[in-house]
Structures are given as structure tokens and as C-alpha cells.
Write a structure and sequence with these properties.
This protein has 144 residues and is an alpha/beta fold. The chain is 22% helix and 26% strand. Helix 1 crosses helix 2.
Length: 144
């Protein structure tokens, strides 16, 4: 487990970018954190690290956005509106999880039971005692 601390959105973005640079086909990144912690900022940096040229936003209403302009495809999920993890299979989740790209899943704890064990879990947390922009990012790499 690795714990990283950031003092602003730019630093959170940079951590995402560095993780995107190292991401490989088949990787799954499970992203968790309360509303407003910076999950989308992290995702935008991650996409830049993959070389994605389009604007990246949370696919809250569509559940999935696919970006194919980077060095490998990015399958960006936002599952905050999912009520039952089985709903994920209606959008082809199993095909994406076993696909040729990398999956980045916001609110991943909602679908914990269907996530592969071999994944990178990223949890972003605020600590208002440390300031409004402080974030504690916990990274657990379960791929090995």
C-alpha cells in the first residue's frame, strides 16, 4: 500500500497522469472517494497519461465513456447511479474488463463484488483539518 498526499487539484491530476503513463492493457483501476474529493480530476490526469486527446468528464449519466485516442483505449466508468452490480453487464462490463484497454471505474466500491481481484484500488479522501485542498490518496496494487 502506498499513501500519497496532495495540496491541490494539480497535484491530484499529476498523480493520475503518472499512473496513466504506467497503465497497461487489461489493467483495472478502482477509484473511490466521497463526492468532491477529486476522482474526476484524477481521471483527467490518468487519461492524459494514456495520451487521450478528448476532454474527459465523469460519465455519470451514461455510466461509460470510451476514449480511443490514447496509446491504449480507456474505458471510463462512473457507477454512482448503479443500484445492482448486475446492471453492469447490460453495458458490456465483462467485455470491457477483459478487453484490450484499461478500465477506470469511479465509485468502484458500489460494484465491489464483480471487480477482479487483480486491480489497483485508489481511494481519495479529504481531511478538512489539513485544509480544503488537502487529499490523502491511498493506492493498493492487487495485480501481483
Amino acid at each position: 500500500m502506498q499513501i500519497l498526499e496532495t495540496e491541490g487539484p494539480g497535484e491530484t491530476y499529476e498523480i493520475g497522469r503518472k499512473m496513466g503513463l504506467k497503465a497497461a492493457p487489461g489493467d483495472v483501476f478502482a477509484l473511490n472517494g466521497d463526492l468532491g474529493t477529486g476522482k474526476t480530476v484524477f481521471a483527467q490526469g490518468f487519461a492524459e497519461g494514456l495520451g487521450v486527446r478528448e476532454y474527459v468528464n465523469s460519465p455519470t449519466f451514461t455510466i461509460l465513456s470510451v476514449y480511443e485516442t490514447g496509446r491504449i483505449p480507456l474505458y471510463h466508468f462512473d457507477v454512482c447511479r448503479i443500484e445492482d452490480p448486475e446492471e453492469m453487464f447490460e453495458v458490456g462490463f465483462d467485455e470491457y474488463i477483459n478487453g484490450r484497454g484499461v478500465c477506470l471505474i469511479e465509485w468502484a466500491d458500489i460494484i465491489e463484488e464483480i471487480l477482479p481481484e487483480a486491480r489497483v484500488s485508489v481511494t481519495i479522501a479529504k481531511d478538512l483539518a489539513r485544509g480544503n485542498d488537502y487529499r490523502r490518496i491511498t493506492v493498493e496494487d492487487g495485480r501481483s
